[in-house]
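[Q] Does anyone have a clean structure-token version of this?
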Amino acid sequence: MAKIKSKWTCLNCGYETTGYLGKCPDCGEWGTLTEEKIQKNDNVKGLIVNLNNKSVPQLLKNIELDDAIRFSTGLSEFNRVLGGGLVRGSLVLIGGDPGIGKSTLVLQSSGNLAKTGLKILYTSAEESARQVKLRSNRLNVDSENLFIYSETNLDEIQANISNINPDVVIIDSIQAVYSSGLTSSPGSVSQVRECCNILMNIAKANGITIIVVGHVTKDGMIAGPKVLEHMVDTVLYFEGERYKSYRLLRTIKNRFGSTNDVGVFNMEDDGLVEVTNPSELFLAERCESIAPGSVVIATSEGTRPLLVEIQALVGPTSYAAPRRVATGIEYNRVLQILAVLEKRVGLNLSKHDVYVNVVGGINIQEPAADLGIALAVATCARNVIVDPETVIIGEIGLSGETRTVRQLEQRINEAAKLGFKKAIVPKASLPLKTNPANIKVIGVSRLIEAITSSIPVKEELGV
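[A] Here you go.
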């Protein structure tokens, strides 16, 4: 008879133990161990991975690269986050919230790849072939080289990969696929880890590019063990606001290109449409009559500069402890900037609520937004309007000094393209290698200098 046993596996690092532990002894995370009941069946055959070419050691200088090592997906924004296109023999993981557009993205890309002559196998483990056909009609996707296969058994999928010999394989999604070599349920830690391991071996041994779609948990992390992200070559997160039409495809890991890059799409009735100028999109709803507390900053997502609007609202508090609310920016970063404003500028905010919001729903993680946040808060507190044709760039130190940021020239050039006439930047970054046309660059060394330089008419701040 089959032997049934239970084990506990850490979702973060994959550590296994026979009993429950509140804290994982390997990675130190709390509450990450989940129970799995495993039934070992001796009648089930072992997992088989067809290896057409055995790997042998080679000298680095003797390894040759051809021009076909990368191929385009037909979507320039998708190519951007991939580092120039899909790499042959790579394993790509795409995660995102339900309904965000993951299946739409991979189906559109499959259609574009099939039109170039590549053979595509789209495996849907959650939908029938007819459901995929309905979506393809809406997206205008049709090609003789695109195969649709509805199956959840990875052994059957592997057999069809051997028969069809495709160039690209889509697995939608990895949590719904299972291997008959394991008796645990689909989506469990052991199933996800083992299925991903088999797919990785298929991709590396046969030179087949495999794109895997993954679900996310309520915390926004890809469901399954954390080792899943370590096994794949590229990890992409598909993000977007529920009530907004645009979507962000962000690179978290990429062995063949830069990380923290971002591609922008707009979700329409006939699918995803690329946004070639995302800065214009994020500033499209900016009011002509600018109110106090509104500032435009130039942030950077990977190699792409983005212009976004930061709004701050400062008002007297009715609570014993004033409220501090930050949306789209790290909360502790905002508290640090408010402390600098009180100590170095003399702006008393101890009896005022402060709300900071990044318009458009984008999340900013780099410190180049510090100067813009400080100006938004200071001008709103004193009811002063920042020059609407000014863009703010810079990091703030604890002593109130401005610090340099990377890719400053690219940010200034992006601001000049959108019609901004003035840029306030850290003085330590000047002079620039090339002077951008039609924009005046002002260098400041202190926060108080940036506040006075951003006001069109010199007004008394009262600080």
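[Q] Thanks! Anything notable?
[A] The chain is about 25% helix and 25% strand.
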